[in-house]
Amino acid sequence: MARVVVLPGDGIGPEVVGAALQVLREVAPDVTLEEHPIGGAAFEAAGDPFPPGTRDALAGADAALLGTVGGAPDSAWNHLPRPQRPESGLLRLRQHLGVFANLRPVQVMPGLEHLSPLRPEIAAGVDLLIVRELLGGAYFDPRRGRGEDAAFNTIGYSRAEIERVGEHAFRAAQERRGVLTSVDKANVLEVSELWRDTVTAQAQAYPRVTLNHEYVDSVATLLVTRPQRYDVLLTENLFGDILSDLAAVLPGSLGLMPSASLGARTGLYEPVHGSAPDIAGQGVANPAGTILSAALLLRYSLGRGSEADRVEAAVRTALAAVPTRDLGGTATTAELTAAVLRAL
Ligand SMILES: NC(=O)c1ccc[n+]([C@@H]2O[C@H](COP(=O)([O-])OP(=O)(O)OC[C@H]3O[C@@H](n4cnc5c(N)ncnc54)[C@H](O)[C@@H]3O)[C@@H](O)[C@H]2O)c1
Ligand SMILES: CC(C)[C@H](C(=O)O)[C@@H](O)C(=O)O
Ligand SMILES: [Mg+2]
């Protein structure tokens, strides 16, 4: 029987995960859901943002569903030694699982164009996928350091690291509209030169995919002015972090953005947004990104594509009927969740 490890985390994490669990229990009642602490909550409980108990629970699990980690700007957590901070717990979780390919789909769902702050002719029909490398680059490179008046980080990638995430992007493009845009800064960075060379060589194996290379600064503009030109975007870790928050403008809110992190037996599913300390505890967070992440979990880790389709359709219906506050509506977390459950 399938087993999913549930990691609510901090801030709005428990609120949005609570919503997704209601949906999962409805469409997949046979799946075992097991909650464990992560992030600041785990630091408070166990002195470690990724405690051994949570790590052990992941062994043999089919998937993990994560909420969010991290505190407000003035949180004491931000002054802990870096390995004890909530965000380090999340990075260690990703590394422990070995999930190097982070898929962040961005869709303006039919009938929900009005939720985008962009003009309808720009937003309508947008359906793109950001494939973000998740275990390399500046985030994990050991060549880093901080002195009193100087500090440095390094963006290092090996050909093998680029190839393995590239494979996910090429395969996704092949199954979609066949256009892959590799995002880099090859006009300035050597690491981007290697990225570009590697992806170009890989393209030989995917004759049905058209490969383009674009500079990340230019993509930042085109993503919100001409988003319909993109199908799959492949990018390194830090560029992908930034571009995926920017892409949230397209559907209308960070609260709508799901993600799937793949590459290992146990997939990790989490919304793209953070712990939103400004609205945490108020019951107004948009749970759609987490519910849609649960749909990705059903599709990719549990092989239940039809249930995933059902959940996605229900979210679309619910958002059209009762948009949450981040989308200009008034629905609370509970009201949107109830609407999703009704629409299933
Ligand atoms: N994956 C993660 O766990 C993750 C991701 C990003 C940031 N963080 C952490 O979260 C904390 C806050 O970061 P931040 O403020 O830069 O980013 P954030 O994504 O938490 O919030 C940015 C803005 O978007 C809003 N927002 C985000 N999610 C929403 C939702 N579901 N519904 C409605 N509104 C939503 C917030 O209210 C806020 O105004 C920090 O500690 C940061 O390190 C965690
Ligand atoms: C919280 C942080 C470590 C994380 C990241 O930078 O990967 C987040 O911003 C994300 O996008 O998932
Ligand atoms: Mg981010």
From TrEMBL:
Q: Which GO terms describe its molecular function?
A: 3-isopropylmalate dehydrogenase activity; magnesium ion binding; NAD binding
A single Pfam family it belongs to is: Iso_dh
* Presence of the UniProt keyword Oxidoreductase in the record: yes
| Record-level GO BP terms | L-leucine biosynthetic process
Name the InterPro entries on file. IsoCit/isopropylmalate_DH_CS (IPR019818), IsoPropMal-DH-like_dom (IPR024084), Isopropylmalate_DH (IPR004429)
Q: Which Gene3D superfamilies match?
A: Isopropylmalate Dehydrogenase
User: Which pathway does the database say it acts in?
Assistant: Amino-acid biosynthesis; L-leucine biosynthesis; L-leucine from 3-methyl-2-oxobutanoate: step 3/4
Per the record's keyword annotation, is Oxidoreductase included, yes or no?
Answer: yes
* Localization annotation: Cytoplasm
Cofactor binding remark: Binds 1 Mg(2+) or Mn(2+) ion per subunit.
| Reaction catalysis annotation | (2R,3S)-3-isopropylmalate + NAD(+) = 4-methyl-2-oxopentanoate + CO2 + NADH
Where is the site described as Important for catalysis found in this chain? Y139, K185
Superkingdom, taxonomy of origin: Bacteria
Residues reported to bind NAD(+): G274, S275, A276, P277, D278, I279, A280, G281, Q282, G283, V284, A285, N286
Q: Which PROSITE patterns match?
A: IDH_IMDH
The residues the record assigns to binding Mg(2+) are D217, D241, D245
PANTHER family, per the entry? 3-ISOPROPYLMALATE DEHYDROGENASE
Give the family this protein belongs to, as stated in its UniProt record: Belongs to the isocitrate and isopropylmalate dehydrogenases family. LeuB type 1 subfamily.
Q: Which NCBIfam families match?
A: leuB
Return the HAMAP family for the record: LeuB_type1
What protein is this chain from? 3-isopropylmalate dehydrogenase
- Species classification: Bacteria, Thermotogati, Deinococcota, Deinococci, Deinococcales
